[in-house]
Specification:
Shape: globular
CATH superfamily of one domain: NAD(P)-binding Rossmann-like Domain
Largest sheet: 7 strands, parallel
Structural class: alpha/beta
Strand content: 5-15%
Number of strands: 9
Radius of gyration: 19 Å
Distance between the termini: 44 Å
Strand order of the largest sheet: 3-2-1-4-5-6-8
CATH topology of one domain: Rossmann fold
Helix content: 40-55%
């Protein structure tokens, strides 16, 4: 019987699809969760679930037992680096042979932005551990528009960002998961760092045009000032540290620094990446 693969962050934008695609391929999956709803849903999906909390390192000991391959996703929190280091240490103790780490585009840039530096620090922890690795460095996710801007689009026919006319080669999380599954189940990906993008770079004006065509309504992109964006996020109860992280990212988008289009998804998976129109069609209910 094939060995189980451990998937951390199994209910998030990427982890959900990693779990689905592994199970669809007949690969047994172990997941880790701590909320009752998540545990029940993951069990119903067919995974072995360990109840643990990343914030309590002691609860993670048993999670890695008998595991040789791990999809490592850590939540975006101020202590992400410390959390990542703890998980890598536990993986090493348990004899894990290969870690596929969800990082971020530009993690290797210097000096980079805060989020990129955090990702790179976790990458270094993995490199220093001696465990074989594959780093996935995706651009911003298409799913962001459904998850974070869906309500605004539904209720106001608009979404608001301080991103100017900058273009971003948005990537679908299903494609990110597809690359992860290839790296977890096939040889030849060890020691690689894959930057993942969609098939085209889009401005938010173009995104709004596609959403308008798909929904049959006029959807507007409103380019707001940094001050206005900060005010909106503060009103949404987003913590100051996360606002700072996001504003750095939006500046990169505004400058066109995340517009590169790369063939990595198709090279690794053998399938062309999903474009934004297909994403919008598949998630149209999030915008109606």
């Amino acid at each position: 019987m094939e060995e189980k693969i451990l998937v951390t962050g199994p209910t998030g934008n990427v982890g959900t699809h990693v779990v689905r695609q592994l199970l669809a391929a007949g690969v047994p999956v172990r997941t880790v969760a701590h909320s009752r709803n998540s545990i029940e849903a993951l069990r119903k999906a067919g995974t072995e679930v360990f109840e643990a909390d990343f914030g309590e390192p002691g609860s993670m000991h048993a999670v890695f037992d008998g595991i040789s391959r791990v999809f490592l996703l850590t939540p975006l929190v101020p202590h992400m680096v410390r959390m990542g280091a703890t998980l890598v240490e536990e993986a090493k103790k348990a004899g894990v042979k290969h870690i596929v780490r969800l990082s971020g585009m530009g993690a290797d840039a210097a000096p980079g932005i805060t989020l990129g530096r955090w990702h790179r620090e976790v990458e270094r922890e993995i490199e220093d551990s001696g465990i074989a690795y594959t780093f996935l460095r995706p651009n911003s996710f298409m799913q962001t528009y459904a998850v974070f801007f869906g309500e605004s689009i539904k209720n106001r026919d608009a979404f608001y960002l301080p991103a100017g006319d900058g273009k971003v080669s948005l990537v679908d999380t299903r494609d990110v998961a597809g690359v992860a599954v290839e790296a977890l189940t096939k040889k030849g990906h060890e020691g690689k760092a894959y930057t993942l993008t969609g098939p085209e770079a889009l401005s938010n004006t173009r995104v709004s045009e596609i959403l308008s065509e798909v929904t049959g309504r006029a959807i507007r992109y409103v380019d707001v000032s940094d001050e206005s964006a900060r005010h909106r996020m503060k009103n949404a109860q987003i913590p100051d540290w996360l606002i700072d992280v996001l504003m750095e990212l939006y500046q990169l988008h505004r400058e066109g620094a995340t517009s590169a289009v790369l063939p990595t998804v198709e090279q690794v998976t053998g399938k062309p990446p999903i474009d934004f129109r297909q994403f919008a069609l598949d998630h149209v209910e999030a915008f109606k």
